[in-house]
Every structure is written in C-alpha cells, then in structure tokens.
Amino acid sequence: DSSNNIYVADYGNHAIRKISNGVVTTLAGPTVSETPGFVDAPGSAARFNGPMDLAVDSSGAVYVADYNNNAIRKVSTAGVVTTFAGSLTGVSGFVNATGTEARFFHPNSIAVDSNNAVYVADEGNWLIRMISPSGVVETHPGSPKNSDVQVISMISSIPTLTEMRWNRYGYGILKKWNINNGFGSILDSNGTIYAVNSGMIWKIYNSGVISLLAGDCQSYSKDGTGLNAGFGRITGIVMDSTGNLFVSDDNTVRKITSNGVVTTFAGAISSYGIDTTGYVNGVGTAARFNQLFGIAIDSADNLYVADAFNNVIRKITKTGVVTTFAGSGVKGYVDANGTAAQFNRPFSIIMDSSGTLLVYDAVNQAIRTIAPNGDVGTLLNGFLPNANSDYINFVAVDGAGNLYYRNMETIGKLTPSGVISTLSTPFTYGFTVDSTGLLYVLEPHSSGILKTVTGTGVVTPIPGILGP
Length: 468
What we know:
InterPro entries: 6-blade_b-propeller_TolB-like, NHL_repeat. This is 6-bladed beta-propeller. Keywords: Repeat. It is a single chain. The chain is mainly beta. It folds into two domains: 135 residues, 6 Propeller (Neuraminidase), CATH 2.120.10; 288 residues, TolB, C-terminal domain (Neuraminidase), CATH 2.120.10. It has a five-stranded antiparallel beta sheet with strand order 16-20-19-18-17, with no helix packed on it. Strand 17 and strand 18 form a beta hairpin.
C-alpha cells in the first residue's frame, strides 16, 4: 500500500496476512490453522476459502480473489470483510450484474487501477471481468472457451490497458481492437457506442474502454448471458426506450438487455443453433422469417424488419406480435398500401424522425418509403452513385433528415431533397451518426481506428479512442 505495507493472500491458511516492517499479522481470517468458510465479519471472525490473490486500492482497502468461494471480497483498513461482488453462498456462474447479484467461477487473480476499478481474471469463465467502484460487474474482451487466464496485473503507475491482448482473435482494449464482419452500430444518449463485430456485441465507452456485452464468436445462435450467448449473422441493431437492444440475426430477432441477457424475441432457433426459415405471422417464437437484412424501431418501440427473401416488411409489437406491414410476398415493384405493395429483396431499413420507413429495395434498385399508415412510395429509383447494390446498408438519419448509408467501399449521404454525395471515408464495416450529423466510423482489419466524419466529409481521428 502507500505506506509500504505488504499484504499476502495466504491460500492454505484461508487468511489475509499483513507484513509491516517485517512484522507479520493477520488482517482478516483465522489466526490459527482452521477449515475454510464464507463469513463476512471483522478480523479473525471472517472466513475465506482459498484466497488466491489480492490488490489494494487508493484508500488502502484490500480486494481479494476468493477462489473457492467464487467471490470478490473487500477488506477495509480496519479489517472488516464484506463481499464486494459474487454470490454470498459461494455459487459459481457467469452473470454480469451489481455486487452480490454477479457471478464468478474461480477468480484467481485481481488488480486495481488508478480509478479504483477492479479487474479480475475469472479462470473458470475464461475471461477478464471489470468491477466499477460501485460494484457494477462487466466483461472485458476474453477468449470464448479457449483461453487460460491466469494472471492480470497493472503494468504502469497509471494503468490504461491500452495494449493488453489475451485471446487468439486479437481483441483488446483501445488501440489494438480489430473490426471484422461488423454490420451495425448504435449510439446511446450517454455517448456509448454499441458495435457489432464477428457475432459479438461490444460497448465502446466515450472514455475509449471497450467491453463485451454478449456473444461468443462461434457463429451459431443460442440464448444465454454474455459469452454464453451466440449469434448467427447480425445485420442490424436498434435500442428501445428502456435501453434494451434488438438485433436482426439471420431468421430471428434477438433481444439483449443491459446486463447482456440474450433471448429470442421473434422467430425460432433449432436445437442445433440453426434458425428456422418460413413465412408465418404469429407471436414471438411462433413467427417465421426468411433472411432478415435490417431492423428499425419507432417511438412506441415497435420493431420493423426487412424480411428479404419473403419480399416483405414485417412489424413486431412490444409484446412480440408479428404481422406483415407492407408487401404481398410476391417479387415485384408496386407502390400501394400495405400488403398490396411489392418489393424485390428489401435489404435494409431505417426510420426517420417523422415515422417514415426508408427501405433499400435491392433488385429494384430503389429507395422505397413506407408511411405510418402503410402507404408505400418511391424516394429514389436507380443505382446510388458508386454503390454495389448487393451491399447497401442504411445506417442512420440525422436530425436534419439526411440519410446515411454504407456500401462495400464508401459512406453515402442522401438529403431530403434527393441530393446524393459520397463522403471521403475508407472502407468501413460500421458507423453510427448522432443528431447533428457527426459520423463515428469504425475501420476494419488494419487498426480498428475510431474516427469522426462530418457531413461534408472531413475526417478526424478521435484522440485516445482506438487511435494510432
């Protein structure tokens, strides 16, 4: 600590020892050899079960990786022991939550940074966990079921974790984050970006810290929490008014809570993780889709998906009721109301501030509009400049009604008056737009640099966030 006292996690004696000027005392836990236990109490009345590692924060409090109790314990400077995070009964598991609602599986190493955030090597879950000073547990990028995390330590006096990597996929914090196969990102009211990358959903805080919310990079769909969940191919992402995320994932719509709990909201997944195709209106998992290529949300939290191979736009209410909002299901090009209209491979969808849906109708090479009453019209007919028609993806509409879209090479902008321009940006897998028209762009493969791009195409790296 700051007074040069040394603290030791005495695994075999299930105690926390303190060495001051060469004098060894027991700060917490039994003073004589005793069987392990799990008791929050002052000093010698407290019990641990195989404390594996410890770290000291700026106030002198000691955080203990209590290995066999599957918990993170906190010892005050007076020796009072409390459970900071993890089950109060030693139950193992994987849950991101606050304090004792969270779950760990054999935490074996621990470190504290200059902001008193606690980092834990969660051995049994094969990942790194972070705990805020208020006890909120989150997951940092870790190798899904293939990494043997044994040690975590701070390697500078002002630790930033900017160069830290610990899995074969190359994910890390900040500077060396790789972007691969990402389709979609969204910016919340706090400035946090939720980005899709290789079948996983990540949170990028405005401080530059990246945290894994859900997904295991295994390329098949399964419900679960955090790394225990899986996605097939995510093609769009939106957030509702309560902070839940919804993604279009092959032939399903998946829901992700703020704690990383993933469930199938509409459509069905087989026991082998393969989505079931079809064309059925129904409730929740009774509904069927055929290749969803985008998702939008209105002010009432109703979802709209581009059901590409069924050639329709489907609507999903907050209670999971799925109906056909527009399109007859027959390939064609007809502007009409609701199911009298026709599309041919609707590949992207977004909603503007007036509640009008914008749909990229790929084979018809058109941008179609759908009014709140279901009237379908045409905004633009013909190829967008420099666009590959197979890869157009509507990303966002800014506060002025400008539509931003991505294709395999560039980012394009379409004004409400129909003026089209191409922004000077590199190849990108994902970006999002704020209400002022400022774009946040994620570059793939080479460096994962996060940049801003103005509506006129001026590119600026964001200092300290995924920067060179």
